[in-house]
Amino acid sequence: MVNNAAGEGDRRRSGGLFPFSQIGSRPTATLPSSSGLDERTAASGPRVGRVLLFIFGLALATTAPATRLEAKSLLWRARSDQGTLYVLGSIHLLRKEDYPLSPAIEAAFAEARTVAFEVDFGATEPLKLQTLMAQRGVYRDGRTLPQAISEGTYAMAAERAKQLGIDIKTLHPFKPWMVALTLTSAQLQKLGFDPKYGVDRHLFERARAAEKAVIGLETPEEQFSLLDAMPPKQQEAMLLQTMKDLERIEHSVHRLIAAWKAGDQSVMEDLVLAGFKEYPDLYQRVMLDRNRRWLARLEAFLTQSETTLVVIGAGHVVGKGNVIELLRERGYRMEQLR
Questions:
Q1: How far apart are CA 224 and CA 229, in angstroms?
Q2: What is the pLDDT of residues 210-219, one digit of tens each?
Q3: Is the distance from CB of 99 to CB of 197 less than 8 angstroms?
Q4: Residue-wise over 27-47: b if at least 16 C-beta within 10 A, else e?
């Protein structure tokens, strides 16, 4: 699943689910005091933003290794009579040594006048993000995490939190999806991943420096609402899937990076679908439904007399119902670039 979780403003993240996107890629303060959380809990919550992107961006499953027979980029181009659209499936776990990006990605970025991300990194102030997290991710009706999930799931979460140096009691005010983000963020930070080397963050900073137009396909409010609107059972499923992913992440992350660099759509599809196989409703909500919502925006870019580069989590460009497939169904020729 695309799960990765929460933490500080620069994100230590996954993910694709959340990946969501690029929420919170900037440093954030602590949660508002009105949330009633202690300092330790607040310190954990702020990282959620960065991880949302990871979550919505890509699943952390571990399956077949990547092959590099014909190296491509996870980048597609479509052209219309008016404009050109590039769609890049990104991951948020690259390292300094993984740069520079491929020539095809560099050329697409140079050509683009507008760069679109799942969420505009610079659009939301840190304090607003904190407020959103407090409003959406914290119980306000007296319930606590142990009351919201099964004893078995709680025991697993407590054990995982302990391994990460987190007292599970500090997470009691959080809803299951918020706990999932928090645990993911802590795990990724423990593994030493720096959010500034994520493809989306890297390209955002460069786009801003080059004074390109930067836009978001979604708002932070929409992404938090999507998570918070999940039924209780789906939230618990997200937490369970996250914990499964965290068991595999250390072993799968290098495989995932290799597959992304090779532009190996088949292996990337296996990775994503393996993580969602047990949770089809979650996959529908965080991946397929969003792909369809974005389709109109992507088509609109092709009516403009300019070039647009869209950077979205790799999970959105592989598997049944991905945006590349949807654009092909609309009659566009989608060319994967080398």
A1: 8
A2: 999 999 999 8
A3: yes
A4: ebebbbeebebeeebbbbbbb
